[in-house]
Every structure is written in C-alpha cells, then in structure tokens.
Model the fold of this input.
Amino acid sequence: MKFKEDKCPNCGQYLDAHTNLKKEVKPKVGDVGICYKCCSILVFDEDLNLAIPNREQLERINSDKEFMAEIFSYITLLNLRQQ
Ligand SMILES: [Zn+2]
Done:
C-alpha cells in the first residue's frame, strides 16, 4: 500500500509504501514497521513518520513474544530475498 514518503531513520533508505502482515490498513501512531533494506524495527511516530523506538516502545514490543516471533519470521524472509 502506498503511503507517505519517508526515509528509514537507521539506513536512510527511501520508503513510500508498506505491507501489513495481516490486512491492508494504513499505519497508525505506535505501529511497528520494519525497514525492508536494513531490517530495523521502527515505529510510526505522532506524525506517522518512521522513528527508532525509544526504550519504552522497545520494551512493549519485546514483551509480546508472539509478535516478536512474527517480526523475526518477516526479517528472515527479507534476508532470504536479499541473498
Ligand atoms: Zn533501513
């Protein structure tokens, strides 16, 4: 799904679209994203720009083991596609 233009705050990759793991919805504040280039775990900030998660956000993400498993599965897929 096309979305606002942004850059990965970690690697600087230009990003203008996103793919939701479960259904096609626009991202909202606090949602987690993964950069397809560097596989950084990112969050959508209050302006829906991608940001590096702060400690509190990382703890929230990390506390959801099922979600973390999904994230690592997706990162593995990204890595396989880039080989
Ligand atoms: Zn990146």
Notes: Residues 8, 10-11, 13, 35, 37-38, 40 surround zinc ion (CB under 6 Å). Residues 2-82 form a domain with the Rubrerythrin, domain 2 fold (CATH 2.20.28.160). The chain has a mean pLDDT of 89.
